Amino acid sequence: MTRARRAAVQPSRGFSLIELMISLSIGLIIAGAAFAAYMGTASASRMADAQGRMNDDAQAALSILTQQLRMAGNNPAQANRVDNAQPTRASRHNPLYLPMPTYDDFTLLPATFSLSAFSLRGCDGQFSNLDSAARLDDLLCAAGAGPHAFAVSYEADRYNTVPTEAGLPTDCAGNALSVITATLPVMAGSGSASSAVQYAVADNRFYIASSAGIPSLMCTGNGAGQPQALVENIDDLRLSYGVVSTASSASTATVAGYLSANEIRTQPDLAALPDDAARWAKVITVRICVLVRSEAAVVADAASASYLRCDGTLESAAPDLRLRRAYSSTVVLRNRRL
Fold first, then answer.
1. Is the pLDDT reported for residue 112 higher than 60?
2. Residue among 269, 253, 321 nearest 293 (CA)
3. Which of 91, 120, 153, 236 is most exposed by smallest CB count within 10 Å?
């Protein structure tokens, strides 16, 4: 007889406690490394997103400001006007800036509109009568430091502004501008005749203020509307003005130096000029700097939140953990006539 073979019974085996602890430790190390890598990637992504948004905000703010400054004083010659050697009777341009024309039968409507001696004016701080000043000539600077403010004026049309559906030119906030009607000589056949011409003037004022708790680049125009926030998260605005020598009179004059708005009034050579209009007429370039902040806190500590101000000095006591950076540009005033 064949005896059935009994299979040998093998004892069951498992991991020892030491092996389990080693496995758990290795797993924790791998999980921790993966989590750290994820957190580092997320932090880098948030930083990159913040920097990208800041670059976009800075580009938008500088684009608006440089475009407005380039148009300061825009008052093009008109093809159908009578030329005259007398400055107060030169009718090539629509009446916008002083001196007042002395044409026969000259009229200007509405009666509330008056010619200005300024196409650019600024303050080393805010305007104290931003909303009440009817024109640049009436603007006053508030006492104290803070973000700078400036105002520009120019002849506006449907090509250098964003027109309304009715084709009317607009101010910096998108509000339709009032139509000005002037009666002056216009070419007619071989002679000239008094005729009513219509045009519009933009008076735009830029400054920094809080909008819904967010520091923003603001604009107030002379259309019938409220101030508007143009770009959010703009902490500061600084300007310096390139002036020519008081002896310069050619349009090719070079910049003698850069001054603040206050220094334009107090610098000895400029202070000797008859009035503020003559002093600001010596400005031919403008340096702009905007300080942009991130939308949210993205840096880890106060040391990482330090930044360079517009004047190049280090700010080591940032108010929060947001990222901040200064962006600058220089603008030539193309319409300046010295």
1. yes
2. 321
3. 236
Average pLDDT, the chain: 90
Q: How far apart are CA 288 and CA 210, in angstroms?
A: 20
Contact 336, 251 (CB under 8 A): yes
Segments making up each domain of the chain, as ranges: 37-75+120-154+203-332
Amino acid at 274: P
Angle (CA) 48-54-59 rounded to 5° is 125
Is the bond into 185 cis (omega within 30 degrees of 0)? no
Residue 276 Cα distances to 206, 240, 332, angstroms? 20, 16, 20
CA distances from 32 to 19, 20, 240, 322 (A): 20, 18, 52, 28
Distance CA 320, CA 58 (A): 20
Model confidence band, residue 336 (pLDDT cutoffs 50, 70, 90): confident
Contact 101, 91 (CB under 8 A): yes
Structural contact between residues 115 and 121, judged by C-beta atoms closer than 8 angstroms = no
CA 136 to chain centre: 18
pTM: 0.87
Side-by-side strand order, sheet with 283-297 = 257-259, 234-243, 283-297, 322-332
Q: What is the mean pLDDT of residues 1-16?
A: 58
Q: Show the tokens assigned to 82.
A: 């009578």
pLDDT for 278-309, tens place per residue? 999 999 999 999 999 999 999 989 999 999 99
Least Cα distance to 58 among 333, 334, 324 occurs for 324
The pLDDT, as a whole number, for residue 282 is 94
What are the beta bridge partners of residue 107?
Answer: 183
Alpha helices in the chain (DSSP H): 17-71, 261-266, 268-271, 276-280
